[in-house]
Amino acid sequence: MKKVALNGAGLLVALFAAFPVYWMISTSLKPSSEIFSSTPQPVPAHPTLAHYREILTGNLIPGVSFLDFFLNSALVAVATVVLSGLVALLAATAVARFRFKLRTSFLIMLLVVQMIPLEALVIPLFLMIQRLGLYNTLPSLILTYLGFSLPFAVWMLRGFVAAVPKELEEAAAIDGASRAQIFRKVLFPLVAPGLVATSIFSFITAWNELIFALTFINDQSRYTLPVAMTFFFGRDDTNWGPVMAASTLFTLPVIIFFLLVQRRMVSGLVAGAVKG
Amino acid sequence: MNRWKRLAPVTAVVASAAMVLTGCGGSGEDAADDSKLTVWMMGEGGDAQNAFLDSVETEFRQKHPDTDVVVQYIPWLEAPKKFQAALAGGEGPDITELGNTETQGWAAQEALADVSGRMGGWADGKDLLPDLVRNAQLDGKQYGVPWYAGVRAIYYRTDWFAEAGVQPPKTWDDLVTVAKAVQEKKKGTYGIALPGNSELPFYSFLWGAGGEIASNQGGAWKSGYTTPEAQRAVKFWTDLVTVHKVAPPAAAGWNEIDARTQFATGKAAMAFAGSWQQAAIKKDNPDIEKVWGTFPIPGPDGKAAPAFAGGSDVAIWKDSERQDLAWDYLTVLLNKKNAQSFASSLGFFPVYQDLVAGDTYANDKVMAAFATTMQNTKLTPLTPKWVEVSRTKTVTQAMNSSVMKGQKTVEKATADAAAEMEGILNSK
Amino acid sequence: MSVLTKTSQTAAARETPARRRRRVDRLPYLLLLPALVIIGVLLLWPLGQVVTMSFYRLNSVRQLRGDREWPWVGLGNYIEILTDPFFLTVLRNTVLFAAANVFLTMVLGTLVGLLLNRLGRKMATFVASCVMLAWATPALTGTIVWKWIFDDTSGLVTWLFNALPDGLSNGLFGRSDWTGYGWFNSPLLFFAILTLVVVWHSFPFIAVSVLAGLKSVPSELHEAARVDGASPWRVFWKITFPLLRPVFGILIVLSTIWDFKVFTQQFVLAGGTQDRPTFMLSIYSYAEAFSPPPKYGLGAAIAVILTLILLVVTGFYVRMVLRQEDE
Known about the structure:
By secondary structure, chain A is mainly α.
């Protein structure tokens, strides 16, 4: 009896969580007449790939296709993930493995910088990017997202580092391994899964961001996906079919990434909070 | 010789790589560089617009064979941010399209070049509709040139009107009667898809009743919203939702796109919409073409109401180092032949008096009502502060919505809106 | 780790392989350097710029380029904001919204975390995967979908309400026809839907974190308590919660920070910066700064106020978290 209640609650939670995603995909497969009908079909009665064809084969704006935007976004997101992972790993090792004077100050700072409303930084960052000669380049976005994603990445990763038993490193040290070797051969392989899990947050930051992408990029062939999405909301038009198809394509990579790393997702955060 | 030839692709690659690295968005350092003209267009373009712009480029290059025209598309909603970034970064276009309600604001931000002098020497320019020309002026100087324009009217379902035995209304009272009659006949629909959160259709009622938005009295702006005429208009407009119930409560939050979609998908008998929205309506419902018609927005007493002529201007970017070139492009883009063909392809009107007048549109069952209204336009207040009233603070929209939602009385809402409007327009 | 913290130097010396070295260990600083540089240049320096801008009257883009003077107004921008009655509305919206969302997210997330811990293996995997979907959906597209679900004519919710028996619907809400009902019309309803969207996006993180925390707690403790006949409510507050207090602490801090700054969801749901009655601080700052005519100084001042409020609100928790760090 209790088991039934628990499973029932589980199903309800699953429904609430997954339904909007299902509805997005379902709508994207319906012909327009079905989308605008006042009795929505739970499952597309006449499934069609027309909206996907419309987005993928046509040019969203003249000369640039959805795929181009997709590649721009992928490039920016992957570069952000790699860079932020590397830098975060170094910093996380420092705070998880060493006690030093500024350690607490650094941790406070990690929390405080997350309180900054990022949209307010558009102007100073814009002027900086301009001076660096990076205006209208994808690296301008990589750099920006690196800054945005780093504090949380360090915060999470330090738990994963702390969870690696110190004894392994000490044993290696006794065997005469250098610090660099210990880092590379002992610590890194053990933290790697946590690194992947952490990277999802950096990925989402870079993949989802609109305001800066819009401001820093001038050339339409270098627009990212979120910017492309704004073209669907024109002066006169919101067409739900293509919007949902584009949203599905936009969401899919993140979901795939998530399912790959989900098991390890937050154990680092907990380890960090519990073990310090 | 041969070796140089083989090297050519390499140098081309290097050159283009350099271009990529330096960012090829805007005006370069080199003042003499006329090899490229950057044009900003609003919206997502589309095949028809692309073909049109290609032909304009061909025509333009007859005079400037060495200049490449590069067109960049800017999403409408995000245009203000792109403009600010371009202005702050000095990486703007040479020439740009912009919504004609925004020209003054950007002129005040010193984004646009003064073209008063050039206008004088341009033959076609003399036939431009004077209201639209004035709308692109600031302190007596010309900062933009009208490109295309359109007005709002009312679309209606001819078949439903026939079933209910009613004719297109000519007065406000008629409008209510007709809406109720059709709503009664066609259960599950409502009479009017009313964009309660848009200001431009409402102005037709304001002006129709003899009201004004605001007037400049000796240097200080005075809002007209507290006059009996304006209050009558607000009352009528909001009563459609709250008293006559010919539009649903949701209408308080609708913009023109929402309202149009209601009409297109067969949920409303009438809708306020512009001529340029025909294509979008047909896209939602291809069959509607057989059963739609239009009529001008009625005034209270049988005379059609004036309307605001919305559309686009073209302006030259102040920081552009290719102003002459940009002007040459502008005069090709806007010459009568091109203006007419482009405006028609969008469902807008060309902005030349001689092209709008006459019988060109008399036999078009949709365009005729709009063409009539094009002869009877009015302007929103001519000040760069207006955009703050209209877009940022949405004073008029908020006034109407608050009455429709029952949050304020007409008297309170109009008084509040007038005070807020005057505060913004008269701020330093 | 706590035994090692007599002084930082000895701790570092004992803890690292370089324990025999006498001098201050520079390694941790070297490891931190890249992160410090990036955060300093890309977050702290621009923040300083924002603070500077908030003391000037900046109403023209040309000023940003340095083509025009920056007139110093001191606290003028702050005074203008704080004396505007509209600020109170915005502040009230922000605080109430954040409080409600942190509370709901924490409660729902914790319940789901506890549930996942009790479910059988297959069911737990299934439910967790579904929960991941909500988490993985980017804020932009997630909000677009919710907006579509609440569409006033073809939206699913409108249809559901229409499907209610007319008598019931009339009795409960005083209306039976929901087509054209404006779901986003009243600020209260708008905030309710925004809360739904934000909680939907953020409860998975809490749930999974709580679950991971539970897994790290020895299950014997729970078993023992249950054998003693304690109610689940008591088990939670007497055993689970105290053990997981650090986890809850940090989750609350993070949720508070995030929910105070909600931007994308509101921007998409409200269709830009048009719906002023529902403004909260972050969108208010953005709208003042960028909606034409721009008022960068004013927008910057609002952003500074938001940051300060967050510092004050979370200050208590941050101290608590750090005390645990030092223990």
